[in-house]
């Protein structure tokens, strides 16, 4: 389809007045979005101001647990985290320290975030021999 045919099709489907009204409507909506509808709220045309989406609050620290099995799991993870952190402070590489507890590095990171404990990530440290 050529440009002339496309323009003829557009001219046949919408009148100039409709096109101008559509442009005005789009301009109005763009301005409203940019001002977060403050003008409409001030004019009383809407009852609530537009509110941005709230991010869920991230819990810091250990959550309250009522299930005994889950509490046991969290206790075991906390013990493993303390051991891994001690090994990391002693100079062990992340991979080696995490391997001693039977975890992978992303398990270590996830549990550290869940329990609000320090995460000693992959820094450039020399690999220590396993004892």
Give the tally of structural domains: 2
Which structural category do the helix and sheet elements fall into?
Answer: mainly alpha
The percent of residues in helical segments reads 55-70%
**Total strand segments:** 0
Could you say which overall geometry the principal axes of the C-alpha atoms support?
elongated
| C-alpha-based Rg, rounded | 30 Å
- Count of individual helical segments: 6
Largest sheet, in brief, is: none
Task: Report the uncertain regions.
Answer: 124-129
**Percent of residues in β-strands:** under 5%
Oligomer: single chain
Average pLDDT figure: 78
Distance between the termini: 76 Å
| Helix-strand topology string | HHHHHH
């Amino acid at each position: 389809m050529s440009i002339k045919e496309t323009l003829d099709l557009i001219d046949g489907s919408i009148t100039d007045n409709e096109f101008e009204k559509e442009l005005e409507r789009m301009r109005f909506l763009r301005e409203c979005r940019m001002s977060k509808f403050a003008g409409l709220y001030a004019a009383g045309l809407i009852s609530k101001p537009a509110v941005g989406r709230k991010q869920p609050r991230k819990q810091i620290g250990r959550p309250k647990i009522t299930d005994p099995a889950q509490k046991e799991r969290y206790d075991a993870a906390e013990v493993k985290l303390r051991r891994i952190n001690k090994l990391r402070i002693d100079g062990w590489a992340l991979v080696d320290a995490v391997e001693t507890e039977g975890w992978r590095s992303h398990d270590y990171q996830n549990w550290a975030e869940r329990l609000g404990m320090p995460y000693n990530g992959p820094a450039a440290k020399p690999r220590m021999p396993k004892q």
